[in-house]
Backbone:
């Protein structure tokens, strides 16, 4: 089986880190500076049975400019064409306005969205359930998977969930 998966989330949630963890190479540019990754970066994850192309999708931001609008439209069209969307949340920061804006964009898209709760290495496990409840109020997520993109914790589980949608 094979397919495309888009990774979305506000700046610094760990999109590039997750992609690097999955692909095992430094293909996405990482930085603490928001919006370093301006273009879609594709990474191909291949196993004996499956091939998944990951798209780092940084273009969904609240922007005032025409260029911003164009980037948003391009990103949204991408989300309609992939097999699954990974919506990354930063559990160490908690829910924020940037999350809400992106989740609102996902409303018009039929693609299954997996809620990925990232940076669990930085939070107490008890903090996760209230966050899950908060995010779940805003969207019907197909799956919910807590991970640490940085140390790789539970990333295999995430890949197994993704493979269900190929
Ligand atoms: P992006 O803007 O969404 O692509 O975010 P990046 O992948 O560039 O990550 C932003 C910052 O968060 C970097 O300093 C990463 O090292 C850090 N980061 C990403 N994932 C994790 C994680 O699971 N745990 C921790 N502690 N830090 C993370
Ligand atoms: Mg990035």
Residues:
């Amino acid at each position: 089986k094979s397919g495309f998966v888009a990774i979305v989330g506000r700046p610094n949630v760990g999109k590039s880190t997750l992609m690097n963890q999955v692909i095992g190479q430094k293909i996405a540019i990482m930085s603490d500076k928001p919006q370093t990754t301006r273009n879609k970066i594709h990474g191909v994850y291949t196993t004996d049975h499956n091939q998944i192309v990951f798209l780092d999708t940084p273009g969904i931001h609240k922007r005032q400019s025409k260029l911003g609008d164009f980037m948003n439209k391009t990103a949204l069209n991408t989300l309609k064409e992939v097999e699954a969307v990974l919506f990354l949340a930063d559990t160490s920061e908690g829910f924020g306005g940037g999350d809400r804006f992106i989740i609102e964009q996902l409303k018009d898209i039929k693609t299954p969205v997996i809620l990925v709760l990232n940076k669990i290495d930085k939070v107490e496990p008890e903090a996760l359930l209230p966050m899950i409840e908060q995010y779940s109020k805003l969207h019907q997520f197909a799956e919910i998977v807590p991970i640490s993109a940085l140390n790789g914790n539970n990333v295999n589980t995430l890949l197994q969930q993704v493979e269900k949608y190929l």
